[in-house]
Specification:
By secondary structure, the chain is of the alpha+beta class. Helices cover about 25% and strands about 30% of the residues. It has a seven-stranded mixed sheet. Helix 1 crosses helix 2 (about 50-60).
């Protein structure tokens, strides 16, 4: 269950002060020993740098909406709505992470629901995400949230980072969002 101290909000420019902390949360969620979301045995390298996080916070590059989950003043989770000009009406949920020390408390579900609630206000009717095909536990979790597999597979875009089968693909998942 989510602890009462957890709050989620969209980032503002002054949140650049949290860029290092937020990048560490993303990397810990995907590249550390702890937590059930780790990909450390599948993918090498950093998932996110502090410089990348700064660009996301300051919205340098492509437009997006980024949310942080806070436990008091500490960043413990992230999620981003990434706009897709190739797919009008659809946006990708990305940069989704919860610190391993805060996983299994409902924070991840709360982050995804926050992104899903924001999407209609931004003009999107469909949420999309890409999940590694060799992660059945992650796929099952997203299905519990109402996402379904589309049948589309796309190649992993950084094969040099893979520690396993270089032919690994992402599965595309989608979910309709309610227009408010």
């Amino acid at each position: 269950m989510v602890q009462p101290t957890i709050s989620i909000r969209s980032v503002v420019a002054t949140d650049v002060q949290y860029k290092d902390e937020a990048a560490k949360v993303v990397n810990a969620a995907y590249r550390s020993e702890g937590g059930w979301t780790t990909e450390k045995d599948i993918v090498s390298g950093e998932r996110c740098t502090a410089e990348m996080m700064q660009d996301f916070i300051l919205q340098n590059g492509k437009p997006h909406t980024l949310f942080f989950a806070f436990d008091q003043d500490q960043v413990v989770g992230t999620v981003q709505i990434q706009y897709s000009p190739e797919h009008p009406g659809e946006a990708e949920i990305g940069l989704f992470s919860v610190s391993p020390t805060h996983q299994s408390r409902g924070i991840g579900g709360k982050l995804v629901r926050q992104a899903m609630q924001e999407m209609p206000r931004l003009g999107y009717h469909t949420a999309m995400m890409h999940v590694l095909e060799n992660r059945p536990e992650i796929l099952a979790w997203y299905k519990k949230l109402g996402f379904f597999e589309t049948g589309e597979r796309i190649p992993f875009i950084w094969p040099e980072m893979l520690k396993v089968d270089k032919d690994l693909h992402f599965l595309t998942l989608k979910k309709s969002v309610e227009i408010l």
